[in-house]
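Changelog note: in this version the structure field was regenerated for every chain. One regenerated record is shown below for reference.
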Amino acid sequence: MCKFDTSSGLTKKQIDIIKYAVKDEISRQLPILPEPVETKLFFEGRHAWIFSWSFIRQDRIELKDQIILDVVAKLKKEFHPYNESTHYKYSCKVKLTKDIYRPKVTVKKSA
């Protein structure tokens, strides 16, 4: 595993788009905090989760390739009392398409 950065052959813009799409998909699977906490975070423009990224493949990426990532979502310490599990691990497959703003994302929760 290695860092998910421009050394993979992707541009900074492509990496940012992929991270946004994956975070959006994972956020739908993460547990929801109590409504007042979620509302406060929304108005402050913050998130309760920190994401760590690991790139599985080590060769350079072409447009036709599938990107495989391991993503760990950790709950920030200030929110630990609201949830019994503080981190979740996901295996993500991202297929680049001709429209770089719409990568095909498949997310699976790991053990």
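Spot check on this record: The helical segments are 12-27, 35-44. The chain has a mean pLDDT of 87.
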